[in-house]
Amino acid sequence: MTKHFYVNLYHFLVKSYVPVVKKKYGKVRESVKTPTESGTGPAEMGALVATPIIKTVDLSKEYPQAREPLKVLKGINFQVEREEFIAIMGPSGSGKSTLLNMIGALDRPTSGIVYIDGVDLNTLNDNQLAELRNKKIGFVFQFFNLIQRMDAIGNVELTMAISGVPGRQRRERASMLLEMVGLGDRLDHKPSELSGGEQQRVAIARALSNDPAVLLCDEVTGNLDSKTGDDIMHLLRALNKEQGKTFVLITHDPVVAQSTDRLVQLHDGMIVGEKQVW
Ligand SMILES: Nc1ncnc2c1ncn2[C@@H]1O[C@H](COP(=O)(O)OP(=O)(O)OP(=O)(O)O)[C@@H](O)[C@H]1O
Ligand SMILES: [Mg+2]
Protein backbone atom coordinates (compact mmCIF):
# COMPACT_ATOMS: atom_id res chain seq x y z
CA MET A 1 0.00 0.00 0.00
CA THR A 2 1.52 3.29 -1.02
CA LYS A 3 1.22 6.66 0.59
CA HIS A 4 -0.72 7.79 -2.50
CA PHE A 5 -3.37 5.18 -1.87
CA TYR A 6 -4.01 6.54 1.60
CA VAL A 7 -3.98 10.13 0.42
CA ASN A 8 -6.53 9.34 -2.33
CA LEU A 9 -8.66 7.31 0.03
CA TYR A 10 -8.60 10.14 2.53
CA HIS A 11 -9.71 12.70 -0.06
CA PHE A 12 -12.41 10.37 -1.30
CA LEU A 13 -13.77 9.76 2.18
CA VAL A 14 -13.70 13.42 3.14
CA LYS A 15 -15.44 14.48 -0.09
CA SER A 16 -18.09 11.81 -0.09
CA TYR A 17 -18.66 11.09 3.57
CA VAL A 18 -18.54 14.49 5.27
CA PRO A 19 -21.31 16.19 3.24
CA VAL A 20 -23.63 13.20 3.70
CA VAL A 21 -23.07 13.00 7.44
CA LYS A 22 -23.32 16.75 7.73
CA LYS A 23 -26.64 16.68 5.93
CA LYS A 24 -27.93 13.92 8.14
CA TYR A 25 -26.61 15.04 11.48
CA GLY A 26 -25.55 18.64 10.81
CA LYS A 27 -22.69 18.49 13.27
CA VAL A 28 -19.67 16.72 11.88
CA ARG A 29 -16.47 18.71 12.11
CA GLU A 30 -16.15 21.18 9.29
CA SER A 31 -13.07 21.13 7.11
CA VAL A 32 -11.49 24.09 8.83
CA LYS A 33 -8.54 25.71 7.14
CA THR A 34 -6.88 26.65 10.40
CA PRO A 35 -4.21 24.34 11.87
CA THR A 36 -5.77 21.40 13.66
CA GLU A 37 -4.68 19.32 16.57
CA SER A 38 -4.08 16.31 14.37
CA GLY A 39 -2.48 18.04 11.39
CA THR A 40 -3.60 17.20 7.87
CA GLY A 41 -3.65 14.15 5.63
CA PRO A 42 -4.56 10.57 6.25
CA ALA A 43 -4.03 10.86 9.99
CA GLU A 44 -7.11 13.07 10.02
CA MET A 45 -9.28 10.20 8.86
CA GLY A 46 -9.29 8.88 12.37
CA ALA A 47 -9.66 12.38 13.75
CA LEU A 48 -12.91 12.83 11.86
CA VAL A 49 -14.51 10.45 14.30
CA ALA A 50 -12.22 10.59 17.29
CA THR A 51 -11.35 14.27 17.84
CA PRO A 52 -12.84 15.37 21.15
CA ILE A 53 -15.15 18.34 20.77
CA ILE A 54 -13.28 20.09 23.60
CA LYS A 55 -9.75 19.50 24.79
CA THR A 56 -7.46 21.56 27.00
CA VAL A 57 -3.73 21.08 27.40
CA ASP A 58 -1.90 22.57 30.40
CA LEU A 59 -4.37 25.43 30.49
CA SER A 60 -3.41 28.25 32.84
CA LYS A 61 -4.91 31.62 33.58
CA GLU A 62 -3.40 34.35 35.68
CA TYR A 63 -4.70 37.81 36.47
CA PRO A 64 -2.18 40.56 37.16
CA GLN A 65 -2.14 41.91 40.71
CA ALA A 66 -0.06 44.46 42.58
CA ARG A 67 2.52 41.93 43.79
CA GLU A 68 2.48 38.55 42.09
CA PRO A 69 -0.18 37.45 39.59
CA LEU A 70 -3.29 35.66 40.82
CA LYS A 71 -3.15 32.11 39.46
CA VAL A 72 -6.71 31.04 38.80
CA LEU A 73 -6.22 28.00 36.53
CA LYS A 74 -3.12 25.92 37.11
CA GLY A 75 -2.56 23.49 34.27
CA ILE A 76 -5.95 22.04 33.36
CA ASN A 77 -5.90 18.94 31.16
CA PHE A 78 -9.26 17.56 30.23
CA GLN A 79 -11.43 16.70 27.32
CA VAL A 80 -15.07 16.34 26.45
CA GLU A 81 -16.31 13.91 23.84
CA ARG A 82 -19.04 14.72 21.35
CA GLU A 83 -22.52 14.40 22.82
CA GLU A 84 -21.23 14.10 26.36
CA PHE A 85 -23.09 15.85 29.16
CA ILE A 86 -20.66 16.75 31.91
CA ALA A 87 -20.79 18.71 35.14
CA ILE A 88 -18.03 20.80 36.70
CA MET A 89 -18.24 21.28 40.45
CA GLY A 90 -15.98 23.04 42.90
CA PRO A 91 -15.95 25.62 45.67
CA SER A 92 -16.66 29.26 44.94
CA GLY A 93 -13.55 30.88 43.47
CA SER A 94 -12.03 27.58 42.30
CA GLY A 95 -11.98 28.80 38.68
CA LYS A 96 -15.09 27.16 37.18
CA SER A 97 -16.41 30.21 35.32
CA THR A 98 -12.89 31.15 34.26
CA LEU A 99 -12.47 27.68 32.74
CA LEU A 100 -15.83 27.94 30.97
CA ASN A 101 -14.85 31.33 29.56
CA MET A 102 -11.63 29.86 28.14
CA ILE A 103 -13.45 26.91 26.59
CA GLY A 104 -16.06 29.27 25.20
CA ALA A 105 -13.42 31.51 23.61
CA LEU A 106 -14.64 34.47 25.66
CA ASP A 107 -11.18 34.98 27.11
CA ARG A 108 -7.66 33.88 26.24
CA PRO A 109 -5.49 31.73 28.52
CA THR A 110 -2.16 32.89 29.91
CA SER A 111 -0.62 29.65 28.66
CA GLY A 112 -1.75 26.28 27.37
CA ILE A 113 -4.14 25.34 24.61
CA VAL A 114 -7.87 25.00 24.12
CA TYR A 115 -8.95 22.91 21.14
CA ILE A 116 -12.53 23.19 19.96
CA ASP A 117 -13.45 20.56 17.43
CA GLY A 118 -9.73 20.03 16.79
CA VAL A 119 -8.96 23.72 16.23
CA ASP A 120 -6.26 25.31 18.41
CA LEU A 121 -7.87 28.58 19.56
CA ASN A 122 -4.43 30.19 19.98
CA THR A 123 -4.08 30.16 16.19
CA LEU A 124 -7.21 32.27 15.67
CA ASN A 125 -7.34 36.05 15.58
CA ASP A 126 -10.13 37.89 17.40
CA ASN A 127 -12.48 37.85 14.40
CA GLN A 128 -11.94 34.14 13.77
CA LEU A 129 -12.46 33.48 17.46
CA ALA A 130 -15.75 35.38 17.42
CA GLU A 131 -16.84 33.45 14.33
CA LEU A 132 -16.01 30.10 15.91
CA ARG A 133 -17.84 31.11 19.08
CA ASN A 134 -20.84 32.19 17.10
CA LYS A 135 -21.03 28.99 15.07
CA LYS A 136 -20.07 26.33 17.56
CA ILE A 137 -20.85 27.51 21.06
CA GLY A 138 -23.97 28.54 22.93
CA PHE A 139 -23.92 30.06 26.42
CA VAL A 140 -26.54 29.93 29.14
CA PHE A 141 -26.01 31.80 32.41
CA GLN A 142 -27.45 31.88 35.91
CA PHE A 143 -29.12 35.27 35.53
CA PHE A 144 -30.40 34.64 31.99
CA ASN A 145 -28.72 37.79 30.58
CA LEU A 146 -31.71 38.72 28.43
CA ILE A 147 -32.23 42.15 26.95
CA GLN A 148 -35.03 43.64 29.01
CA ARG A 149 -36.54 45.92 26.39
CA MET A 150 -36.82 43.13 23.82
CA ASP A 151 -39.53 40.49 23.76
CA ALA A 152 -38.75 36.77 23.82
CA ILE A 153 -38.60 36.39 20.05
CA GLY A 154 -36.39 39.50 19.72
CA ASN A 155 -33.96 38.10 22.28
CA VAL A 156 -33.70 34.81 20.40
CA GLU A 157 -33.34 36.57 17.04
CA LEU A 158 -30.49 38.75 18.23
CA THR A 159 -27.58 36.32 17.75
CA MET A 160 -28.90 35.35 14.34
CA ALA A 161 -29.14 39.02 13.39
CA ILE A 162 -25.48 39.44 14.38
CA SER A 163 -24.60 36.44 12.18
CA GLY A 164 -26.44 38.02 9.25
CA VAL A 165 -29.40 35.62 9.04
CA PRO A 166 -32.13 37.38 6.99
CA GLY A 167 -35.09 38.81 8.91
CA ARG A 168 -37.85 36.42 7.95
CA GLN A 169 -35.68 33.34 8.30
CA ARG A 170 -34.50 34.31 11.78
CA ARG A 171 -38.03 35.14 12.91
CA GLU A 172 -39.22 31.72 11.80
CA ARG A 173 -36.31 29.98 13.51
CA ALA A 174 -36.69 31.99 16.72
CA SER A 175 -40.36 31.15 16.81
CA MET A 176 -39.65 27.45 16.19
CA LEU A 177 -37.02 27.40 18.97
CA LEU A 178 -39.33 29.11 21.45
CA GLU A 179 -42.02 26.62 20.55
CA MET A 180 -39.53 23.81 21.13
CA VAL A 181 -38.69 25.03 24.65
CA GLY A 182 -42.40 25.29 25.44
CA LEU A 183 -42.90 29.03 25.00
CA GLY A 184 -44.87 29.12 21.76
CA ASP A 185 -47.50 31.25 23.47
CA ARG A 186 -45.05 33.74 25.01
CA LEU A 187 -43.25 35.06 21.92
CA ASP A 188 -44.08 38.71 22.55
CA HIS A 189 -43.50 38.69 26.31
CA LYS A 190 -40.66 40.81 27.63
CA PRO A 191 -38.37 39.23 30.27
CA SER A 192 -40.20 41.15 33.04
CA GLU A 193 -43.41 39.45 31.86
CA LEU A 194 -41.93 35.94 32.18
CA SER A 195 -41.22 33.69 35.16
CA GLY A 196 -37.62 32.76 36.03
CA GLY A 197 -37.95 29.33 34.41
CA GLU A 198 -39.49 30.88 31.31
CA GLN A 199 -36.69 33.44 31.08
CA GLN A 200 -34.17 30.61 31.27
CA ARG A 201 -36.02 28.83 28.46
CA VAL A 202 -35.72 31.97 26.32
CA ALA A 203 -31.99 32.02 27.13
CA ILE A 204 -31.72 28.36 26.09
CA ALA A 205 -33.59 29.04 22.83
CA ARG A 206 -31.23 31.97 22.21
CA ALA A 207 -28.20 29.75 22.86
CA LEU A 208 -29.53 27.28 20.26
CA SER A 209 -30.20 29.89 17.60
CA ASN A 210 -27.05 29.26 15.56
CA ASP A 211 -27.28 25.49 16.08
CA PRO A 212 -24.07 25.20 18.12
CA ALA A 213 -22.44 21.83 18.79
CA VAL A 214 -21.61 22.78 22.39
CA LEU A 215 -23.66 24.41 25.12
CA LEU A 216 -21.81 25.91 28.06
CA CYS A 217 -24.02 26.44 31.07
CA ASP A 218 -22.95 28.38 34.16
CA GLU A 219 -25.22 27.68 37.15
CA VAL A 220 -28.31 27.65 34.94
CA THR A 221 -30.53 26.28 37.69
CA GLY A 222 -28.91 28.36 40.45
CA ASN A 223 -31.60 31.01 40.38
CA LEU A 224 -34.59 28.70 40.08
CA ASP A 225 -36.66 26.70 42.57
CA SER A 226 -36.02 22.96 42.51
CA LYS A 227 -39.07 22.01 40.42
CA THR A 228 -38.30 24.65 37.77
CA GLY A 229 -34.63 23.67 37.90
CA ASP A 230 -35.65 20.07 37.30
CA ASP A 231 -37.71 21.05 34.27
CA ILE A 232 -34.77 22.97 32.82
CA MET A 233 -32.47 19.97 33.38
CA HIS A 234 -34.95 17.74 31.55
CA LEU A 235 -34.97 20.18 28.66
CA LEU A 236 -31.17 20.22 28.48
CA ARG A 237 -31.01 16.42 28.63
CA ALA A 238 -33.55 16.17 25.83
CA LEU A 239 -31.42 18.50 23.69
CA ASN A 240 -28.43 16.29 24.46
CA LYS A 241 -30.17 12.99 23.69
CA GLU A 242 -32.35 14.06 20.79
CA GLN A 243 -30.16 16.62 19.07
CA GLY A 244 -26.72 15.39 20.12
CA LYS A 245 -25.68 18.68 21.73
CA THR A 246 -22.62 18.49 23.98
CA PHE A 247 -23.06 20.05 27.42
CA VAL A 248 -20.58 21.41 29.93
CA LEU A 249 -22.52 22.49 32.97
CA ILE A 250 -21.20 24.23 36.06
CA THR A 251 -23.25 23.53 39.15
CA HIS A 252 -23.18 23.71 42.92
CA ASP A 253 -26.09 21.29 43.13
CA PRO A 254 -25.14 17.61 43.72
CA VAL A 255 -28.56 16.50 42.43
CA VAL A 256 -27.95 18.30 39.14
CA ALA A 257 -24.42 16.85 38.95
CA GLN A 258 -25.77 13.35 39.50
CA SER A 259 -27.99 13.72 36.44
CA THR A 260 -25.01 14.23 34.09
CA ASP A 261 -22.69 11.64 32.46
CA ARG A 262 -19.48 12.66 34.17
CA LEU A 263 -18.46 14.90 37.02
CA VAL A 264 -15.22 16.90 36.99
CA GLN A 265 -14.14 18.40 40.30
CA LEU A 266 -12.15 21.57 40.40
CA HIS A 267 -10.29 22.87 43.43
CA ASP A 268 -8.04 25.91 43.56
CA GLY A 269 -7.59 25.99 39.78
CA MET A 270 -6.81 22.30 39.41
CA ILE A 271 -8.81 19.20 38.52
CA VAL A 272 -8.80 17.07 41.66
CA GLY A 273 -11.23 14.34 40.67
CA GLU A 274 -13.38 12.89 37.94
CA LYS A 275 -16.25 10.53 38.31
CA GLN A 276 -18.30 8.70 35.72
CA VAL A 277 -21.91 9.14 36.79
CA TRP A 278 -23.64 7.02 34.16
N1 LIG B 1 -11.23 39.43 35.56
C1 LIG B 1 -10.70 39.05 36.72
N2 LIG B 1 -9.67 39.73 37.27
C2 LIG B 1 -9.11 39.31 38.44
N3 LIG B 1 -9.50 38.22 39.12
C3 LIG B 1 -10.51 37.51 38.63
C4 LIG B 1 -11.17 37.87 37.41
N4 LIG B 1 -12.13 36.96 37.16
C5 LIG B 1 -12.09 36.08 38.18
N5 LIG B 1 -11.12 36.40 39.06
C6 LIG B 1 -10.76 35.66 40.27
O1 LIG B 1 -10.52 34.32 39.88
C7 LIG B 1 -11.00 33.40 40.84
C8 LIG B 1 -11.88 32.38 40.17
O2 LIG B 1 -13.05 33.02 39.70
P1 LIG B 1 -14.22 32.22 39.01
O3 LIG B 1 -15.26 33.22 38.66
O4 LIG B 1 -13.69 31.39 37.92
O5 LIG B 1 -14.71 31.28 40.20
P2 LIG B 1 -15.91 30.24 40.26
O6 LIG B 1 -15.33 28.91 40.57
O7 LIG B 1 -16.73 30.36 39.04
O8 LIG B 1 -16.72 30.74 41.54
P3 LIG B 1 -18.30 30.82 41.83
O9 LIG B 1 -18.74 29.43 42.19
O10 LIG B 1 -18.40 31.75 42.99
O11 LIG B 1 -18.99 31.36 40.61
C9 LIG B 1 -11.72 34.22 41.90
O12 LIG B 1 -10.88 34.30 43.03
C10 LIG B 1 -11.91 35.57 41.26
O13 LIG B 1 -11.84 36.59 42.20
MG1 LIG C 1 -18.67 31.09 38.66
What does this structure look like?
The protein is built from 9 helices and 10 strands. With 278 residues, the chain is α/β, with parallel strands linked by helices. It has 2 domains: 50 residues, no CATH class; 184 residues, 3-Layer(aba) Sandwich (Rossmann fold). The strands form 2 sheets. A 6-stranded mixed β-sheet has the order 6-7-8-3-9-10, sandwiched between helices. Helix 5 packs across helix 6 and helix 7 packs parallel to helix 8. The chain starts with a helix and ends with a strand. The structure holds adenosine-5'-triphosphate (ATP) and magnesium ion. Adenosine-5'-triphosphate binds next to strand 2 and helix 3.
Would you summarize the structure shown here?
With 278 residues, the protein is of the alpha/beta class.
What sequence of helices (H) and strands (E) makes up the elements? HHEEEHEEHEHHHEHEHEE
- Share in β-strands: 15-25%
Q: Please give the largest β-sheet.
A: 6 strands, mixed
Number of domains: 2
Q: Flag low-confidence runs.
A: 1-35, 38-47
How many DSSP helices? Answer: 9
| Distinct ligand kinds | adenosine-5'-triphosphate, magnesium ion
Net shape: globular
* Helix amount: 25-40%
DSSP, total strands: 10
Q: Output mean pLDDT.
A: 85
Strand order of the largest sheet: 6-7-8-3-9-10
Structural class: alpha/beta
Radius of gyration: 20 Å
Q: Termini, distance in Å?
A: 42 Å
CATH architecture descriptor name of the largest domain: 3-Layer(aba) Sandwich
Which superfamily, in CATH terms, is the homologous superfamily of the largest domain? P-loop containing nucleotide triphosphate hydrolases
CATH class of the largest domain: Alpha Beta
Predict the CATH topology of the largest domain. Rossmann fold
